Amino acid sequence: MSTGTDPLAPLAQLPGVPDAVAEVRKAVDRLYGHRVMRRRAAEVTSESALRGARASAALAGADWPLEEVRRRSDFGADPEARTVGAALRIAAEAGQLLSIWRHSPLQVLARLHLLAVGDGDPAAGRPRRAGEGAEALFPQELEPVESVEVEAVDGPPPVLPPAPGAEEVAARLDQLSRLLVARAEGQGVGTPALVVASVVHGELLALRPFGAHNGVIARAAQRIVLIAEGLDPKSICPAEVGLAELGTAAHRRALAGYLAGTPEGMAAWIAYSGRALRLGVRESTAVCEAMQRGMV
Questions:
Q1: pLDDT value for 187
Q2: Which pLDDT score is estimated for 186?
Q3: What average pLDDT does the chain have?
C-alpha cells in the first residue's frame, strides 16, 4: 500500500481539513518550542495526563474540579469516583502502550478496558458479545466554558443511534486495526496525524465496542495515535480538555457528522477535533507559563 492508496488520504483533502491540520501543527510546534519544555517537559507531560483524565471523566459524567482529582486517593466509593479512577489509570498507562499499539491496537484497547473496569469484571478486556449493550457516551450535559466560542446551532443536539451489534463491531475493529498496523509499517504515512486520530476517536465512539467506558477509551486511543503519528510525541496536548471545554452538545453534533459518513460530516468532525486539540494546547501553554513564573 502506498500513500496514494491510503484509505484515509481523501479525508485530508476535504474542504477545511488542510487548514485545520495546519493550524494544529502551528499550535503544537509553538508549545513544543516553549522555554519550559527544555527543562521540565516531564512535568508538563504529567500535568497534561492529569488534566486530560479529569476532562475525559467529566465527559463521561464525573465532572470533578481538578484539585479534587489531584488530592483524592480513593476512587472506588461511587460510580463517579470509579469513572475518575478509570480515566486516571488509563491516562497513567496509555503512553507506555505505544510499542504494542504499533502491531496490535486491539490488544491495547483490551488493556485500556481492563484498566477501566478492573480484572474482577467478567467482561474486562473483551468487546461486547451478541445481546450486550453499551453505556451512554454522554450521561450528562457539559456546558461550554465561557472563554470558548461555540458555533450557534438551532435546535437540540441530535440523538445518536444505538451502538451496532457485536458482529459489526468485530468486523470494523479488525478493519481499523489492519489500517493502523499498515501505517505503523510505513504504509499510508502521508495522511496527517490529526486526520488519523480523528478517525480512530470517531470510530471507537461509533462502535462503542465495550459495555462501559467507551468514551474514556476512545479519547485515550486518540492520544496514543497523536503520540504514534509524531504530532505530540511527549503527550503534552490534552485534546480531552478541549473536548470538555466545547461541551457535550457540540461533541454530539460533530459526532453525528462522523456517523453520517458524508464528506461534510467527516470534514466537520476533523475540524472539530482540531479545535479541541488546539484548546488542549492552550491548556498546556498556560501550565508552561505558570511554571515559568514559578507558580507551579
A1: 67
A2: 78
A3: 93
Spell 234-267 as b/e; 16+ CB within 10 A means b: bbbbbbbbbbbbbbbbbbbbbbbbbbeeeeebbb
Cβ atoms of 254 and 269 closer than 8 Å: yes
In the prediction, which pLDDT does 157 show? 83
Mean pLDDT across 265-287 = 98
Beta-carbon contacts of 179 under 8 Å, excluding residues fewer than 6 positions away, are 7, 8, 188
Phi/psi of residue 152, nearest 5 degrees:
-70, 125
Domains (range + CATH), the chain: 3-124+159-292 (1.10.3290.10)
- In one-letter notation, the amino acid at residue 52 is G
Q: Measuring CA to CA, how many Å separate 175 from each of 7, 61, 230?
A: 11, 30, 22
The C-alpha atoms of residue 184 and residue 229 are separated, in whole angstroms, by 9
Separation between Cα atoms, residue 16 and residue 167, nearest integer Å: 34
pLDDT value for 188: 61
Position of cell 483524592?
72
Give the model's confidence band at 296: pLDDT under 50 very low, under 70 low, under 90 confident, else very high.
Answer: low
Q: How far apart are CA 119 and CA 10, in angstroms?
A: 41
Residue 196 exposed, middle or buried by CB count within 10 Å (0-12, 13-18, 19+):
buried
Please report which residue ranges of the chain form alpha helices under DSSP H.
Answer: 17-32, 36-59, 66-71, 79-94, 98-103, 105-117, 166-184, 193-207, 214-228, 239-246, 248-260, 263-292
pLDDT digits (tens, 9 = 90+) for 187-238: 666 899 999 999 999 999 999 999 999 999 999 999 999 999 999 999 999 9
